Amino acid sequence: MPSLKTNACLAALLALALAWPAAAGAGPALKRIQAENQLRVGTTGDYPPLSAKGSDGKLIGLDVDLANLLAQRLGVRLKLVQLPASRLLKALEAGEVDLAIAGLTINLRDSLRVTFVGPYLASGQTLLTSAEVGQSLKALADVDHPEFSLAVARGSSGEEVARQMMPKAKILAQNSMQGALQMLLAGKVKAVIADYPFCALAVFQHRDAKLGLLEKPFTYEPLGIALAQGDPEFVNLLRNYLLLMQGSGRLDMLRQRWLKREPWLRLLPR
Amino acid sequence: MRKLHLVLALVLSLLVAASGLALAGPVAQRVSKNKVLVVGTSADYPPFCVKDKNGQVVGLDMDLARGLAAALGVKLQVKVLPFGQLLPAVRAGELDLALAGITMMPRRNLQAAFVGPYFVTGQGMLLKASLAAAVKGPGDVNRPDFTVAVAQGTTGAAAAKVALSKAKLAQAANMEAALKLLLDGKAQVLVADFPFCALAAFRHPEANLAALDRPFTYEPIGMALPPDDELWANLLRNYLGALIQSGRLKVMQERWFKRADWMKDVPK
């Protein structure tokens, strides 16, 4: 009888059998967060006002505040990990970060890979224009008009919305969101179609241009917190955290701070 | 070798059984097998949970527990434990549920899962009825000429230090002592849990007190359940959803928070 090997093998299996229910009961992420006394959150740092890099190199934004407050309430340290958008979901799947908070839209395709909790913000494609033009716009037909010119970033959701909802308008596709915004600032187009956070930022980043935006976006893009699949305890905690933030009015304060007011702009590099 | 396979098969089937059990939802399975729902409570936090003159636990929490047991067609067993032992007992699987006016907060959520809120509370204010017309919120009493009574170390004391930083703080050893400061006229305002304030106004009709009709902080109250049991959480979420949609929850809340008739059955 190959006793030693067999026994070792059995012992390993038994250990697994014993460890399994315990591990499942404790919740993998929560257990790790408590053991390491640290919450690891991935964010991009390239999507102000949600996630940006300040002039001192620190990550700032609404998403960063959400991460900070969560860590604070759990009584653990926060470790922010800056990752490009294309790496976020992979990092969650690989267990390199506990959460991704990075202006992520809750969508079905990504929900096949990760779990979302939220929304903490309802974003969507909206219209940015001068306050003057804005006042003359009463209905979609005023925009969906051959004499109305729009700038969009090529290949963006904004372009998609413009082509679907305003097919009669003159649509000028630019290389980037910034490029589209420059067209508006230079007076070469009447409006820009882009996502809500970008438009909100443009309004107070270019005060002199007196811009305004459509408060109710054309599309509904709920933003959520992403985590690895199969962790109901962590989901429960996050859902309750957002409930607390919402109910206490704290989330609304964060929205005001980052999307409606400009004082934080001084934190950005010049 | 055959023996080894047999043992391996046994261990593997054990593994499968263990994981299978977890997937099927251990609590729902246990409740339907034993035909009993085991609910833990502290029985010391009226009107959520309190012992009546016969020693029976009553309150909003017990209405919820009874309604759930009835909906499931099982008996209800109430276990009274000190508040601090409730979450560990839930976690250890000794309770199917804990209901004791527990505020859902991230730190507690590390120990147990929470479904709710079934009630939203927060810190309330109790004052002389004559002042009530002029006071709508903490801003109206945040003045040096107001003395605010609180119980040391409570959420109320912490909230008062933040929201009423300009007022004088009178710290009493416990809730009853803080209330006495108000009753004796040594403080004009008491800051405490919203239910406590509402209750105190009922308990001392002779003192002519009024509680602010809304809490000024946000504390969602939820049901605590064992972690990692999605089926049980789903069931409770749907139970609560039905109570809210049907208006039953509102009736229960009003019975315990808006009316005083239950107080005659509870020792003073």
Strand runs of chain A, count = 13
- Residue-averaged pLDDT of chain B, rounded? 88
Count of individual helical segments of chain A: 12
Oligomer class? heterodimer
**End-to-end C-alpha gap of chain B:** 73 Å
Note the gap between the termini of chain A: 75 Å
Strand and helix order of chain B: HHEEEEHEHEHEEHEHEHEHEEHH
How much helical structure, as a percent, in the residues of chain B?
Answer: 40-55%
- Structural class of the helices, strands and pairings of chain B? alpha/beta
Instruction: Describe the largest sheet of chain B.
Output: 5 strands, mixed
Helix-and-strand structural type of chain A: alpha/beta
- Strand content of chain B is 15-25%
Query: Which spans of chain A have pLDDT < 50 for at least 5 consecutive residues?
Result: 16-26
- Anisotropy-based shape of chain B: elongated
Give the overall shape of chain A, derived from the CA principal axes: elongated
Can you tell me the residue ranges of chain B where pLDDT is under 50 for at least 5 consecutive residues?
15-24
Radius of gyration of chain A: 23 Å
List SSEs of chain A in N-to-C order: HHEEEEHEHEHEEHHEHEHEHEEHH
Please count the beta strands of chain B (DSSP E, at least 2 residues each): 13
Rounded radius of gyration of chain B (Å):
22 Å
What does this structure look like?
- The complex is a heterodimer of chains A (270) and B (268).
- Chain A has 270 residues and is an alpha/beta fold.
- Chain A is built from 12 helices and 13 strands.
- In chain A, 46% of the residues lie in helices and 23% in strands.
- Chain A has a 5-stranded mixed sheet with strand order 10-9-11-8-12. In chain A, strands 5-1-6 form a 3-stranded parallel sheet, with helices on both faces. Chain A has a 3-stranded antiparallel sheet with strand order 2-3-4, with helices on one face.
- Chain A is elongated and about 60 Å long.
- With 268 residues, chain B is an alpha/beta fold.
- Chain B starts with a helix and ends in an 11-residue tail after the last helix.
- In chain B, strand 2 and strand 3 form a beta hairpin.
- Chains A and B meet through helix 1, helix 3 and helix 11 of A and helix 1, helix 5 and strand 7 of B.
